Amino acid sequence: MRTRGDIECWLTDMDGVLVHENTPIAGASELLAQWRSEGTPFLVLTNNSIFTPRDLSARLRASGLVVPESSIWTSALATADFLKSQMPGGSAFVIGEAGLTTALHEAGFIMTETTPDYVVVGETRNYSFEAITKAIRFIRGGARFIATNPDATGPSTEGVLPATGAIAALITKATGKEPYIVGKPNPMMFRSALNRIGAHSENTGMIGDRMDTDIVAGIEAGLHTVLVMTGISDQREIERYPFRPDEILGSVAELVRGEPLESDLADGEEGLAAGI
């Protein structure tokens, strides 16, 4: 049976694992420093497609976390990587921000409002009725429908906001077409991340705070999965699902050198008790 000691590369979610509302989570800075000093290949993953890796690296640095932009993998990058493999030099009508448009440009795609090959919907704080209407018409006219991630809502200081999944659902209702979703929980995002750092599933771990995205996608991608309790999951949330992570920890602080390695779960409760 694979244990944490077998892991040579790491993928980790960002929000709820490393930071919470721009405040670093205990142990995150030390874990990142440990990976850098030991030369451990790692990527920070996020379903948020608004920001470029450079933007996110700067935001994390402002929170006290050092993550090079080359170590950040977004759903926008995964989407661009996927579309490049499907139709090199293709065209797209995009609903999204710089994180998505920049990734598609760098992948060789053309942004157009004339018979695009794809309609790509990502995260934005400026959803436009006009743009959504165009997307619906393009899809009804034959354009392929892609969404960067399935999240229906996103956070803000005032409360939840409609996110990619909600807008995609509106477009689906108007077109009868379901989007292909590239981001988590599609294990394709993890596979493209593994390719990015030259890692293999047999010796890579995934750290996340959500059972319905991070953990299920990690399991389906064949990774060693670690659920941390600093995000949205609690024991009741864990029990809702028929699958279990390999480990349940209180926070990433328990992954910093010096913590015990033998915390693989036998039945779920044991690991949770040890991790909190």
Automatic annotation (TrEMBL):
Entry's Gene Ontology molecular function annotations: hydrolase activity
Lineage: superkingdom: Bacteria
Parts of the chain that traverse the membrane: none
InterPro entries per record: HAD-like_sf, HAD-SF_hydro_IIA, HAD_sf
Pfam families for the chain: Hydrolase_6, Hydrolase_like
Secretion signal span: none
Keywords assigned: Hydrolase
UniProt-listed SUPFAM superfamilies: HAD-like
Entries under PANTHER family matching the protein: 4-NITROPHENYLPHOSPHATASE-RELATED (PTHR19288), HALOACID DEHALOGENASE-LIKE HYDROLASE DOMAIN-CONTAINING PROTEIN 2 (PTHR19288:SF46)
Family label: Belongs to the HAD-like hydrolase superfamily.
Name of the molecule in the record: HAD-IIA family hydrolase
Species of the source: Microbacterium phycohabitans
